[in-house]
Amino acid sequence: MIKTNTVYQIEKFYEGMKKYWHPVCSFKKLKYKKIIPIQLLGEQIVILFLQGETAALLDVCKHYQAQLSLGKIDKFKGNDCIRCPYHGWAYDRFGKCIDIPQINKKISKNIKVPSYQTCEKYGIVWVCLDHNSKSEIPDLPEYDDGNYRKINFFEKETTKTNVLRMIMGTLDNTHFPWVHGGILGSKGKINQSKNNCNFENNYLKVIYSIEQPNNLVTFDQSDELIEKSKSVNIKYTNYVTINTIRLVKSGPSGNYSIWLSSCPNTFNESTNFWIFSRNYDKSPKKDKDYLDLAKTVRLQDKVVIESQTPKLLIPFNSKIGIPIMSSDKPIIEYQKWIEKLGII
């Protein structure tokens, strides 16, 4: 068995990923529950909705280190705050302690818990653990385009893999016939398409064409004007960042977009946020069919991706993996980029 990742490799991964925005929870769920505990890059964080704004604090009280996420949202002098369940210390959305019930004097401004950058986009709450973020939240142009029908699929269960392996697995197209036979590929028919890879506006952009079986995500099954066949030629245009990938499939009926952003809970566990968009067959009644097919593909991938060890990617110079040019070119370019950024 290949050795597990070392403490040095894990710490390097955490430090390298801190400067990027990560999806952490559904904004709708946050507004409903008000307090959500999450894990991000090995840190326990509490996500809050205070004063009409999202906030993220380290999930620990400065007094005796109880979890703030076990507390409650309260009011103090007209301001929203979170109260520790142990002794009632209260903190505002910036992490400043604004009330200590056991004392009757001004509270030192040094009594505070770490707070982090947060924002809401695409119905998702995002967090960056470093106040000097390296990049913007990845684009999803279909989200605000009225010509597209959108479906959110925010996974409740984590995936036992590193976020980099999750993105790499979604980028990889040569596994289609083996893992997704009958949906994204046909067993025995190997994809040898040419991958056009280049960096464009902070994205790794990958373009290729591939024959895929006739189904919902290749073209509109109800369109009588389109000639039905066993397979359809699909053009993929993929846009990849550190923790997000957007795959745009262009076929006879139009575009089907798959957008995945994965949250690195720890070095070996991730939570996935998917948004599927289509500009054809847009009836809401068909959403379940599209989502069921997407879930089937997801479960097929999950088994294989969770089996990969070590969980965190190993640099190329370790010679543990044996990539193949040119079929593996997209994932080779992605890993080279990750290594250049000092994340692995």
Defining traits:
seven-stranded antiparallel beta sheet; Naphthalene 1,2-dioxygenase Alpha Subunit, Chain A, domain 1; alpha+beta; Rieske Iron-sulfur Protein; six-stranded antiparallel beta sheet; 344 residues
Give a verbal description of the structure.
With 344 residues, the protein is an alpha+beta fold. It folds into 2 domains: 19-128, 3-layer Sandwich (Rieske Iron-sulfur Protein); 141-340, Naphthalene 1,2-dioxygenase Alpha Subunit, Chain A, domain 1, CATH 3.90.380. The chain has helices at residues 7-17, 27-33, 163-171, 176-179, 287-307, 329-340; strands at 22-26, 35-40, 43-50, 53-58, 72-76, 79-83, 90-91, 97-99, 115-121, 124-128, 149-154, 196-200, 203-213, 231-240, 244-250, 255-266, 269-278. The strands form 3 sheets. It has a 7-stranded antiparallel β-sheet with strand order 11-17-16-15-14-13-12, covered by helices on one side. A hairpin with a 3-residue loop joins strand 14 and strand 15. The mean pLDDT is 92.
